[in-house]
Amino acid sequence: MKFFDWDFAWQILPQLLHASLRTIAITLVGFALAVVFGLLFAIARRSRHIWLSWPAAWLIEFIRSTPLLIQVYFLFYVLPTYGLSMTALVAGTLGIALHYACYTAEVYRAGLEAVPRGQWEAVTALNFSPFKAYREVILPQAIRPVLPALGNYLIAMFKDTPVLSAITVVEIMQQAKNIGSDSFRYLEPITLVGVFFLLISIGLAGVVRQVEKRTALP
């Protein structure tokens, strides 16, 4: 019996590549939702209205303090008992998006608090609406310094997608386990999955560095 069967590895590669497309799609959609929700959570947490800031702060701390696995289990297995059913793919994507939205919210909050106080006073003196102040003055200054941190969370989210296999989402890790259970060979599929995550993570890290260089101040 071969230690590593290259013929078998080539045979299962198309199945893993097909599943990898779903993994990448979950990551991209989840991250897009996370950066939008995270910004909204950060703004809400900094609000002067207690009825808005306290629930936002509580939600952020609650989600950051509980495991992603429990959260996706709750969305997929618990919510249907209360009449809210979702497919495994929707529940998994929404779960990982909300989980990382709370981390990106703290990144955004750090960026917002780093904006000089004079800028906040200027938009107040000019009588800008909150939406206009954030869009034209505050966010351009707040987001630029935190882009590397956001990029790191993109990579972390990508590496956390195997957690979704626990709720039957057939991403690349679940596909590898399915192949292993059918063939009783786990070395090849798990090794290929590890190589896939390594290569994509390195590629994403390179993209993040390029974005950081392009957005750096002179």
TrEMBL record:
Belongs to the binding-protein-dependent transport system permease family. HisMQ subfamily. InterPro entries: AA_ABC_transptr_permease_3TM, ArtM/GltK/GlnP/TcyL/YhdX-like, Ectoine_EhuD, MetI-like, MetI-like_sf. Residues 20-208 form the ABC transmembrane type-1 domain. One of its GO terms (cellular component) is ATP-binding cassette (ABC) transporter complex. It is a multi-pass membrane protein. GO terms for molecular function: transmembrane transporter activity. The lineage of its organism: Bacteria, Pseudomonadati, Pseudomonadota, Gammaproteobacteria, Pseudomonadales. NCBIfam families: ectoine_ehuD, HEQRo_perm_3TM. Keywords: Amino-acid transport, Cell membrane, Membrane, Transmembrane, Transmembrane helix, Transport. The keyword Transit peptide does not apply. The chain crosses the membrane at residues 20-44, 82-103, 186-208. It is found in: Cell inner membrane; Cell membrane. One of its GO terms (biological process) is amino acid transport. The keyword Cell membrane applies. The gene is ehuD. This is Ectoine/hydroxyectoine ABC transporter permease subunit EhuD.
